[in-house]
Structures are given as structure tokens and as C-alpha cells.
Amino acid sequence: MIKMLFKLVLVIGIATFAHAKSAKFIGVGFGVFDSSSTSIGIDFLPLTLGVKNQNAKIYLGMSHLLSSPNSATHVNDALFVSTYAFNYDYLFDEFGYVLPYVGAGLSWNEVEYFSGQSSQIIDKHSSFGFEMQTGIEYYFDKTVNLNIGLQYLQVNSNWVHHIYGVFIYLELNKND
């Protein structure tokens, strides 16, 4: 129920933001992370979907973190709001610009921990979390950009655990 409400708020937020002059975008990528409660792992095909204008973007991030040897899986849905370091009104006339950004968001996390020797679940929980991102976007043209950044996630559940990661996305933009 809470997760459905979280996604409903997200959809309303994106729909509202989309009324401004904006570009809709979808991104897919790859990430590597380290965690206070698991080992180094991969962020398997993280996906973003949202809208951006010349000052900011709002988007849903979805990821599936896999780690070994502790064999933990972490499914994460996050609502982010990011702001750019400067306005890029001119971006769609000239290309090759690097745009730094910083953002933060709330996330809904579902975590499963497995025993080291088998696939038996030894702990499972869901909770809200807090995330921060910073990075750069490099625009090849008005429809394609590369997003490279750093991410921090704090999950408050049975214990607080911290996840640090690096990611790279290829974003496809549809401009109004």
C-alpha cells in the first residue's frame, strides 16, 4: 500500500512538472556499489524515467543491486529531484556541453539477505530510505546524453546501512 502511494505521488509530480517546457527522458545504465552491510556488487541495469527542463529534473530511478559473497539483493525505487549548476537554455542550439548537477530523493527499498552457502533467505525487510546524487551530463546532441555520477543511499530498517556507488547512464531525450 505504501509503495503504491509512493508511486502515485511520483506520477502526479512528473505529470505536473511536464506541463512546463521540458524534455521527457529515459535512461539505462550500469553501476558498481559498496555497502556497510554487504560486499562490493553491481547495480544491474538501473533505469531512470522522468522529465527535465532548463533548471532541474524530476525522475523515478529503479535499480536491482546484487552483491556477493553475502548474496544480498536490494530492489530500490527512488523519486529524485536534481538541479543543474547552471541554466542550459542554449543547449538545444549547441552541443558538447558538460552540465554538473546535484540531487536528492526518497526511496522505497526491499532488501533480502541470503545465507552464504545456500539460497535460503535469512532476513527480509522493506523501508524508506534517503538518496543523494551528484554527477555530470554530457550532451552529444539534443536527443542523447551521457550521465556519469556518484550515489549515496541510506536505508533505515533493522539497522541503518549505507550504500555508496558510481553509475553511468545513457539518456534518450524527447524534446517538446
Total helical segments? 1
What is the count of β-strands?
A: 9
Oligomer: single chain
**Can you give the mean pLDDT?**
74
Task: Give the amount of beta strand, in percent.
Answer: over 45%
**Which descriptor suits the 3D outline?**
globular
Order of helices and strands: HEEEEEEEEE
What does this structure look like?
The chain is mainly β. Strands 1, 2, 3, 4, 5, 6, 7, 8 and 9 form a nine-stranded antiparallel beta sheet that branches.
In short, what is this structure?
This protein is mainly beta.
Descriptors:
1 helix; 9-stranded antiparallel beta sheet; 9 strands; Porin; mainly beta
Write the layout of secondary structure elements.
Elements: H1 2-17, E1 23-35, E2 41-43, E3 47-52, E4 56-67, E5 72-84, E6 98-114, E7 121-139, E8 144-156, E9 160-175
Antiparallel strand pairs: 1-2, 1-3, 1-9, 2-4, 3-4, 4-5, 5-6, 6-7, 7-8, 8-9
